[in-house]
Each structure stands twice: as C-alpha cells, then as structure tokens.
C-alpha cells in the first residue's frame, strides 16, 4: 500500500478519542493506522503554549494546519525557481546537500532550505526526471528510509579493510592481486560507464563497458570477464567504498576472488588503478560516446595501454609480463 498522509477526518477522530481517554493502540486500530504513526502524529502536532498551558493538547484542525505548512516547506524547491536553480547548480559542481544548506544559512539568505528538503527533491519526481541523484556523493536510484539504511560498516566490514589485506599484496610480490574502479562519463552519455581493472604486479589493464551502474550488473560483468583466467591469476581485487561495489560478496563463491576496500576518501590506496584511469582518459575522455563503443573498441584501447613499455617493468610491456606470469602457472 502506498504511503498516505493523515487527513483532517482522521485527525479529528484522534482528537475525539484522546479527549475520551482512549489508548493510542485502540485509536490506531480504529482509524486503521499503525500505533507508531499515531504516536508520532500526536507528538509532532501537539499544540503547546507556555503562557496558556491549560490550552496545551492535540487539536485536529491545528494539527492539519501544521502538517500542511510542513508540506509547503518541503516543496520550496518546486515553488521558488531561483532557489531551485541555485541548488541544482551547486549539486552539479559537486556540493553535497549539507554543504548547500549550510552555506545558505552562513550567507544569511532569507530563503533557505534544509539538507533533508534537498534530498527529498532530488529523489522526488522532479529530481528524478532531471537525474539529480547522479551528482550526490553517494548515488542511489532512490533514497532509503533513514532507519532502514544498512550501516556502511556492514556493507564494507572492518575485516575487509585494506589494513587487513596481506602485506605481500602491497609489495607486489605475488601475481593475481588486482585493483578495480569505475570510470564515469558526462550526463549526456547516459548511464553507461566503464569498469577498470589492473593487476598490481604486471600493471596489466582490463577495461569493459557497463550499460548501467547497478551493483548486481557490475559484479556479474566483472565475474564474466575474470572467470576465463586461472584462479591463481585472480586472487583478490581492491576497491574503494563506492556503493557500486556493495555486492562484493558474490566474488568469493562466484570466482574464488577476495575483496578488499580502501579507507573512505583515500583513492591513493589503490594508486595503480587511479593511474590507469588517468592514462585511459586519453582515449576515453568524459565526453566520449561510450555507449557507442563496441567490445572491439574496448579491446583496442586495452591493447594500446598494455602494449606500452613501462619503466617500472624494466621497459617491458604489461602484456609481456602478464603472459610470463600466466606461463608460470602452467
């Protein structure tokens, strides 16, 4: 059943039953609502006057007026075009809703909004039609209720931290340890993106296109790409904590690959793939028509990257060193 606001009839019924000393649980059953909804309604819309405390209480008409005013405040970004354009502009340059709201308050603007109002607009019908969620630091197709969000510590638990990763991975002593990331493109290119992978010891690069950013699609594509390699050549992948990688648990049973995660906002901890992304941008700039690129086009880019001699490899190419390591596994 879709969520609906309490209406005036229900609020008047609550007022009458409260005056009759009916318990909240029975009020909820009578009007067909959950008891927590009624508890929240009474607490949120109770009338209070410090100067006339004898008038304090719940009044249906007053509660209806308060609720209407709150809804109007939530729709500020619909009602005020200048404020809406300002918020959208700041989102596009990378500001978070908290930063936008805080700056409006700091500047003493008479017309301001809370960060919750901005989030509500972004994930509402108007914001979704403009795909504003793509500008948020943590992007989702829709916003989850705050009490139902999975703590990030459960999505990326402490035992998967890069600090728990074996030391030999850091020293590049062993073959089969990878880093992974996602390359994002301009809004005009749609939802298509490119996943980038690099093997730490040989600097061998793999790029493949995704038609969307859903974590299920990304992990399935990643496993399809990595599965042809022998298992010792795909021991682990180190990611950042982007929400696109939250289905990392599929890797272990799927292709026998461990997953490790960098600290928040610490891209240097996966410097190999960051370096790969910078080199790949020569062929895949942010305005590249990535949706039109074929698998052959992606392979051609990988061949260029892997066929370039690298000083760190003694001027051998990543392709040469990768093949040497594969031969050792036979």
From TrEMBL:
PROSITE patterns: INTEGRASE. GO terms for biological process: DNA integration; DNA recombination; transposition. Pfam families: HTH_38 (PF13936). GO terms for molecular function: nucleic acid binding; transposase activity. Keywords: DNA recombination. It comes from the Bacteria. The keyword Nucleotide-binding does not apply. One of its GO terms (cellular component) is cytosol. Residues 162-326 form the Integrase catalytic domain. This is Transposase, IS30 family. It comes from Shimia gijangensis.
